[in-house]
Amino acid sequence: xxxxxxxxxRWLEPLASRPGELAEVFGESLWExxxxxxxxxxREAGLRQEEGTGARWxxxxxxxxxxxxxxxxxxxxxxxxxxxxxAGRDTLPIRPSRAGASLPDGPPSLDQDxxxxxxxxxxxxxxxxxxxxxxxxxxxxxxVAAGQPASVARRRLLSLEGRFTAASRPGDEERDFxxxxxxxxxxxxxxxxxxxxxxxxxxxxxxxxxxxxDVVLAEGSAAVLFHEILAHPLxxxxxxxxxxxxxDARVAVSELEVHxxxxxxxxxxxxxRDDEGTAPRAVRLVHSxxxxxxxxxxxxxxxxGSTGHxxxxxxxxxxxxxxxxxxxxxxxxxxxxxxxxxxxGLWIEEFRGGSVDxxxxxxxxxxxxxxxxxxxxxxxxxxxxxxxxxxxxxxxNIEPVVGRDVRVCRSLGxxxxxxxxxxxxxxxxxILIRRLAVRPAx
Length: 442
Prior knowledge:
The protein is an alpha+beta fold and 442 residues long. The chain has helices spanning 5-12, 73-86, 114-126, 187-198, 222-231, 335-342, 391-396; strands at 22-38, 41-59, 62-69, 130-145, 151-168, 171-182, 211-217, 258-260, 283-287, 290-291, 310-311, 320-321, 325-328, 345-348, 354-357, 362-367, 370-374, 377-382, 385-390, 398-402, 407-408, 414-417, 420-423, 425-428, 431-440.
C-alpha cells in the first residue's frame, strides 16, 4: 500500500470543508494461514487473503461508508468518487496522480514451516490426541484522513482453538482449549505452559447446582467478566447502557481499578494506532470504584478527542468504538487469603465465553469447570455452569480484597458484537464477588 497521500488528502478536502465533517480513507491487507490439526497431523491447510479500501464521510450524525475491493490507488479513487457522490459533493472525475502510485506489496511470509514444527513437538508431548485449528493472521492498515497525518499499522496474531483428550484420574476426558497471543519470541514457551496446565490431572466433576454462590475469579478469568460488564457498556455507541448515565458514580469498592489499554502490545487486543490512525491511550473504566470515561472513536469523541478505540472488524467495515485490552490493577491479597475470605463458594479459573444484555442490564458467562470451596478449603470439582446476574449488583458485591498477582487471560481472544469480530484480551488479579447466580450449563 504505497499511496500518494498528498493527492488523497486533496481528494478528501471537499468532504471536510464544513465544521464537524470527517472524511477518511482506510486501506487494509489481511493474510491468514489456517491449519486444521488432528492427532499430530495437518489434515487441511488454507491461506486467506483480503484487500480492500473503505472511505467514510460523517457529519451531524449522518454517515456514508463506501467499500471497494483492492488497495491500489485506482481503488482509492473509486471509493472517494462514490463517497463524494453519496455526500452530494462535486463528482467530477479525479485525475490519477502518478507520484507514488504503485500496486500493493505481496503477502508476507507467514512462517508456514517454523510454527508447524513447534506445534508438532508441543502436541506430541502434551496433547497427542486432539482436534485443533491454528491460525496466524497478519494485517496491514493504512489511514488517510482529511487534515490529519497519515498512519500505517501492522500486527501479527496467533490463535489455537479446539479440543484434546486428557488422561484424568477417572479416565480419559475431552477438554476445550483456546490460546490467543501476539506472535512473539516468548509465545511458544507460553503456549507450551498453557497446554501443560490444561492437561493436568483432575477429579471427575459433579454437575453444577442452580442457586446463589460467592465466587473467586482466579488466574486472570475476571478479565472476561469485566469485559462484559464494564467494557461493552462503556463503548461510546452502547445505548442504552446502565452505566452511561452514571458518570463518576460509585459502583464498587474503592480498591477496584479497571482500565482498557490498547498500548499493551503483549496482549492480543493491543495496537500502536487504532483503525482510524489515532494513537490510543489507556482509559479508566473504573477509578477508585467510580465509573470513569467511555471508549471513543473519532465519530463519538468529546472535546478531548478520540481515545483511540476506533476499530474495524475487516476491510469492508466502518470503524466503531470498541474495547481492546481489559486490565485490572493488582491489590495485596494472596490466593490463600482469598480462599479463607471466600469460606464457602466456587473457585473459577476459566470461562468459555460470555454475553451482556445492555437494555436489560444483565450478563452471563460460562465456565467449563470450577472447584467447590468449603470452610476455606478446596473440595470437589463442579461444572460446567453459568454465572449470571445484573451489572450494577455484581459490581457492588465485589469484596474490597484484590489479589496481588495480575495474570493474562489467554483464553480470551475474539469478541463479537453486531456480527463484527475483533481481537481483545485482558489481565486481572483474583477477585472475590458475593452472591452471584449459578446454574448448570445446558
